[in-house]
Design goal:
By secondary structure, this protein is mainly alpha-helical. About 60% of the residues lie in helices and about 5% in strands. A two-stranded antiparallel ribbon has the order 1-2.
Length: about 180
């Protein structure tokens, strides 16, 4: 799950099935008691109809937790942690970063660092589109060492400079699900 809408959909689908989750967060749901195989099948079918899927194996769940943590960190929190992403992920998920990194790369075909970079660039696009912050403020907010560093990464990923992107009439952002 990568958005608040997804959380609402999951909660709604579970309630339709007569299940009342204690807590629904990005990538995880806490339900009272154990689920029967039939209930798991019903949940999987309900989620599939909405474009989501039920993950049960530990590796897939951990991959989704990595993604959810990165998305929360970059898109949903006002203040990003001032520590390295590797330390943040390792502390938050209680796994060695090398293990998380290897698992993610093996499963997703890209590195965690690249995944973070793609999301940071999407956040930069969003902040440029909103137009409330200048490039210096955006660089500071996303912990870039300088505007030049932000500009170099932005151009490497999008092929455009941030200034040119700002000047476009029809700005293009990717949906978070597609990053």
């Amino acid at each position: 799950m990568v958005s608040h809408r997804c959380k609402m959909v999951v909660k709604e689908e579970l309630q339709k099935l007569g299940l009342h989750p204690y807590h629904v967060e990005l990538g995880a749901v806490n339900l009272p008691g154990e689920l029967s195989d039939d209930q798991k099948k019903q949940i999987a079918e309900a989620l599939k109809r909405t474009g989501l899927e039920l993950l049960e194996d530990r590796r897939s769940i951990l991959i989704e937790k990595i993604k959810s943590t990165i998305i929360e960190m970059i898109h949903l929190s006002e203040d990003q942690p001032k520590i390295n992403f590797s330390v943040y992920l390792s502390d938050k998920l209680n796994y060695d970063y090398t293990y998380l990194s290897n698992l993610f790369s093996e499963s997703e075909g890209t590195t965690i660092e690249r995944y973070i970079l793609l999301h940071k660039i999407e956040k930069v696009k969003e902040l440029i589109i909103y137009g409330e912050l200048n490039f210096t403020e955006i660089a500071f907010r996303l912990h870039y060492s300088s505007v030049a560093h932000l500009s170099n990464q932005f151009k490497k990923i999008t092929g455009l400079t941030p200034s040119f992107f700002r000047s476009l009439k029809h700005k293009r952002r990717n949906q978070l699900e597609n990053v």
